[in-house]
Amino acid sequence: MRKKKRTSIMGWIWKFFFKSILALVFFSVSQVLVFKYINPPGTVNMIWERLLSSFNQTQYIRPQYSWQDLVRISPHLKQAVLASEDQRFLTHSGFDFKEIKIVIKNMVNRHRFRGASTISMQAARSLFLPSSRSLFRKAAEAWYTILIELFWDKQRILEVYLNTVDWGTHLVGAQAGAQAYFSCNANQLTKRQAALMAAVLPSPHRWSAKAPSAYIRNRQQRILKQMQNMPLL
Questions:
Q1: Cα separations in angstroms, 88 against 33, 76, 96, 103, 203
Q2: What is the distance between the alpha carbons of residues 114 and 118, in angstroms, rounded to a whole number?
């Protein structure tokens, strides 16, 4: 009797687990398909931060966020982020395995670490996931990356990335960054301004395009040199 009851409980657990996985798959695929055609009004992280502020009873400051279609974003900024963040964006399928090998080699031989996130991975993370760090979040990021590479073209991925990436404190997307740093719209950014904005992306809360350090200026110069080899999207 006990054995039958235990078997019944395990069967119920497995059914519940399987149905939960199917529900998550359906939900995530639906999200990706919706945002293939509809521009998102905000990001999951914006909702997450608002919930945290309510829970912690702290003041919530709504981030600056204004969607701009890809054609209304400076071509210089597109080239700058490709040069600084993901130079093989057009040729990989979401994961840059060449870069991952380099990262692993550097960690083993030189004890140095650098990120290997592609623009596709960052777009998935910026739009669909909160900013918390966990293994579940990394797994979800990989799953969403597979989905957007499957259902979106590269132009849409880049468009979502440029509009949802964190560009500083309370700044979400290229338009907010351009207005805050240079008092202009995203389509008006010059080559040097675009390179400067791209230079701060690895750590936008620590670095500033408005008051760049010598290190950021050096990054800007490297990006400017690499931009001439980047395609126009």
A1: 25, 17, 7, 15, 21
A2: 12
Query: Structurally, how many domains does the chain consist of?
Result: 1
Domain harbouring 89, CATH code: 1.10.3810.10
Which segments of the chain are extended strands (E)?
A: 64-65, 166-168, 171-172
Distance CA 62, CA 64 (A): 7
What is the span of the domain harbouring residue 137? Answer: 39-227
Within a domain: 7: no
204 contacts 167 by C-beta, under 8 angstroms: yes
What is the signed CA dihedral for 124, 97, 83, 157, rounded to 10 degrees? -30
- pLDDT tens profile 96-136: 777 666 656 665 666 554 557 899 999 999 999 988 778 88
Residue 32: inside a domain: no
One DSSP character per residue, 193-226 reads HHHHHHHTTTSTTT--SSS--HHHHHHHHHHHHH
More confident residue, 144 or 103: 144
Cβ atoms of residues 155 and 70 within 8 Å: yes
Name the nearest CA neighbour of 179 among 102, 170, 55.
170
Low-confidence winner among 21-35, 47-61, 146-160 (lowest mean pLDDT):
47-61
28 burial class (0-12, 13-18, 19+ CB within 10 angstroms)? middle
Q: Is residue 29 part of a domain?
A: no
Is residue 116 a part of any domain in this protein?
A: yes
* pLDDT for 54: 84
Lookup: tokens for 187: 């389509």
